[in-house]
Batch of 2 targets.
Target 1
Amino acid sequence: MERVGIGIIGTGKISSAYIEASKHFPILEIAAVADLNPAVAQAKADEYGLRATTLDAIFTDPAVDIILNLTIPKAHLEVGLRALGAGKHVYSEKPLGISFTEGQQLVAAARSNNLRLGCAPDTFLGGSHQTARALVDQGVLGTPVGGTAYFMCPGHERWHPNPAFYYEVGGGPMLDMGPYYITDLVNLLGPVARVAGATATPVSTRTITAKERAGEVIPVHVPTHVSGTLIFQNGAVVQITMSFDVAGHRHVPLELYGTNATLLVPDPNHFGGQVELLRKGGEWENVETSLPYGEGTNYRSIGLADMAHALRSNRPHRASGELALHVLEMMEAFGTSMETGRHVEMTTSVERPAPISTSLAEGRLA
Ligand SMILES: NC(=O)c1ccc[n+]([C@@H]2O[C@H](COP(=O)([O-])OP(=O)(O)OC[C@H]3O[C@@H](n4cnc5c(N)ncnc54)[C@H](O)[C@@H]3O)[C@@H](O)[C@H]2O)c1
């Protein structure tokens, strides 16, 4: 199959994960890289034997079919719209935009230009999450009842060299980590009907402890503890908390409850991990994960590869702009619910993405 040319914009921390993982997907050809800071792009290009280009040139580069937008969240809209305007497909890191309105603009621009829009996360395509999906699809849970989703930590300023964006508008634990959990929940349970939420901001500054900028104090402009309830269209009620204010905890990342069973789904920020099942009246069992794209490798770029294959074979891609927009509407709704004291009805909905076809050799997606 003809390879698809990828132009990376934003060669910061996460770009290495994409460049390395792309080696698992022969359809991806990283044609060029660019960054607001040309020296950063050149250094990444030198490290991986790639071609650095200017920000202006990459949008019109004939070798680039898809712009891979790995910039910080508040630049996703500007970079994404410019790429779509230049006739390039776009695959973006999460969140799709820093507000639902921004996400809507990107989805609308892709539609009106007849171009593809994809968005991270793609971890729900990992072997463990697809195993959980297969169990749900087989009806093992019975009628879905509810569940829990927890990501809680003391904050990313412990390890990220430039953590200020996590505390600016467009950052915060919900927009940063919520996409992994909520996207996986939609993959498992389908779309959400309404959201009830509450938020807290216990401190107004954070002190960086990552060695690159240790001791620097950064302001906090967003809630850093976000909690609430997702009410799915199928009736399931899932409690969720995303926080940068918790020293430690003992919740598992994702639990799903059904009338017949409880399912433990591993960390949706990773592709593998142990799936566990408790059938009513039985014992906890470890579920074997024989599906591809699981343990041992960071496959971050599988969503991009799926979109590239989808382009070539003219089928829908799984990590879609519509899915990311539905998730973004939910994530924004926690704050809206806090402000209004009401549940927030979702205006968007989405079909669950098709399960990964396992009939092909690893690296090929249908
Ligand atoms: N760091 C992680 O572990 C991680 C994990 C998953 C997803 N992400 C997501 O990846 C994205 C990037 O995160 P990161 O950690 O790599 O950030 P980073 O700050 O390390 O890198 C971002 C890069 O984008 C460039 N940039 C910013 N604005 C730009 C613009 N307008 N045009 C061109 N380049 C621009 C910056 O110069 C920088 O090099 C974010 O959306 C984040 O949510 C990060």
Note: The pocket of nicotinamide-adenine-dinucleotide is lined by residues 9-14, 35-37, 40, 55, 70-73, 75, 78-79, 93-94, 162, 176 (CB under 6 Å).
Target 2
Amino acid sequence: MHSSHRLLLLSLLPLALSSCIDNTRLKPRAATGAVPISTFGYTGLLGPLNWAGLSPANSACSTSLTQSPINIDPSIISLLPSAPVLDFPSVAAAEFENLGSTIEVITNGTTTIDGTTFNLKQFHFHAPSEHRINEEFFPLEVHMVHESATGELAVVALMFQLSSTETTELLTKVTENIDKIQTPGTRTETGALDFGAVVEHVQTTPLFTYKGSLTTPPCAEGLTFIIPQAPLPVNVETFNKIKSTVKFNSRYTQNDLGKANILDVGCTAAAGAKIEAGKAVGGNGTAVAPAPVTQPAAGKQPSHSVAPPVVAPPAASAAPVEAPASALPVPKASSAVKEEAATGAGAQPVHHCIMGACHTVPAAPARRARRWFQLYV
Ligand SMILES: [Zn+2]
């Protein structure tokens, strides 16, 4: 990553309201000791497709080329050359909190990787897993978040597989009082925690490693993931306790490392599809006023979020578009889209398939569609 880009991202981090960096130097706990409730979510306008729209600090979510989670392709993602050394002391109990976006255990320990010591700050849960290994997802993923003395972040990401014959006792003990933190902002204590089985698993299993990003806003780059090739077991009862509390908190799979941000690609394709739809109606791709908007629930949407311009779809599919009240004036952007449609009239069409949805779009509008994206996200 370009150094100035990295500096920009790091300077924005204190604005983050993210669980993945919770209790690290980038997001220290408030002096009041209150459990911080995340301001992002996994559904609708608060969900991952709109994280970049929630705050300018989250721009990496839609522009970065090294976003997490990814599908771990064993033929591409390398293995850690030597096993790390983990030292996670047993504790009689640990603080266990519901942040709204995840449930989290505050604990201590160290992981030493190639001579660098990372301090364990917390671990939290994602259901289903965020990463996939050789395309396969897992029911549960635990992120053990570490920070070095220089502020570098490393996450040991453990996959869990359902088992009818065995389980990981650590999770049984963690969830002993989970019924007491069913509401975001609440906390309780875990049972006695013994990390022995987890430490042995990490130190004896081949470990994938790559440099990716936070999987939650602000999606900042530069984070090292360490992911055991094999999952740990979890029984159905423990898994269901976790799932019913977390509900769903998995960011969609990102593009391969170094390739275009998949949200950027999707926005470009969507803009092209709208132009095509406009052509189908008006014959010349004329941009018109936005579709009707529906107000989000009070207090649910940050005031700085903006709505993209909308080129009218065919009448049969003109469903209302949900957007915040603070939408920017549309005419200027609509003009840009209109201009784009006009200049792209003679271009060869390109077939785009994004997340299973395929559209034939003109090639030329892509450049301007990207400008539309930059203006409004
Ligand atoms: Zn996480």
Note: The first strand starts at residue 71 and ends at 72.
